[in-house]
Amino acid sequence: MLLFRPLASLRLPGVSAFRDSLALAKLILAMLVSVMLLPGLALAQTSISVLVTEPKGFYQDAADSLTRALRQEGWKVTVSTPENYSSNSPSLTVAIGTPALEKALAEASSPILSLLVPRSTYERLASGKSRVSALYLDQPLTRQLQLLKLALPGLKKAGVPLGPVSRESRKSLGSAVRDSGVLVDSPLIDRSSDLYSALTELAVDSQAFILLPDPLVAQRSNLQNFFLHTYRLKKPVLAYSAPLAKTGAVLALFATPTQMGEEAADWIRQSWMDGVFRLGEPRYPERFSIAINRTVARSLDIELPSEQVLSDRLGALQ
User: Fold this and answer.
1) Ramachandran class of 234: left when φ > 0, alpha when ψ lies in -120 to 50, beta otherwise
2) Which region holds residue 305: left if phi is over 0, alpha if psi is between -120 and 50, else beta?
3) Which residues pair with 93 in a beta bridge?
4) ∠ at Cα 157 (219, 243), nearest 5°?
5) What are the structural domains, with CATH classification, of the chain?
6) For residue 294, what pLDDT is reported?
7) What's the confidence (pLDDT) of residue 68?
8) Which end of the chain is more exposed for a tag (fewer CB within 10 A), N or C?
9) Mean pLDDT across the stretch 57-63?
10) CB-based contact 135:263 (threshold 8 Å)
11) Angle CA(157)–CA(159)–CA(165) in degrees, nearest 5?
12) Is 169 exposed, middle or buried (0-12, 13-18, 19+ CB in 10 A)?
């Protein structure tokens, strides 16, 4: 009679249950890992084509900001220019600049997000198109008038010359006047030769001018003369880009290319649902920066607070 059984033959209570529990735990762990990997696998299979007007300057800066933010999270991103663009059925096309948008509208079969294109230009090009949206280049008119009012406390009326493209902003100006409390005079300019006489007439009742993106009013070849004329009229100008502040505008309100790229990346993340991009309606940038030309401001006897102070006060109104 054996007093002791071999250890291998012993059936310890609970061992079978333990083994079953361990197998179940491994199964649950495998399922959890699979669930955790699914979003990453889906992102890897989701391609975003970034179509940039030219690989330099603020176009490229916006593209770099956008692609950096997306790639850090595992999105598959390709970058091309209109000259070497091939649609290849991406899940989304981001068109940066007007020539890129024109190319995408003509060839892309995917949803399109437009960047660095003014609202008026976008609406003209994308009219009647589906699955296309935009983060506009320009800032909302209400915000522009609010900034002028903060910078020039005595401001009652601003002159806003409108050209063939920017005249579409006339409807928006009405609501901007109501929201900001600043009156606006907005003559229509059909020929560049009429611009300076219109500015002279505007200067009678307007304390400042707003320069909107328009191929006639804001012609590159005429910008120096535009700012020289407004300087002679002793009227400050609010423009839509930092380079224009250096050229002669007292103030500029804009989103930097980096801000545009980051905000577009946020929008793309939020719009990706159930494996498709649902972009929604076009919108103005939420982010903004302010530039001041203090040399011109001093010449016009205008004292302005710092960019940061103006930015904080303007941000509080949004």
Assistant:
1) left
2) beta
3) 49, 112
4) 30
5) 43-137+257-277 (3.40.50.10490), 141-254+288-316 (3.40.50.2300)
6) 98
7) 97
8) N
9) 97
10) yes
11) 140
12) buried
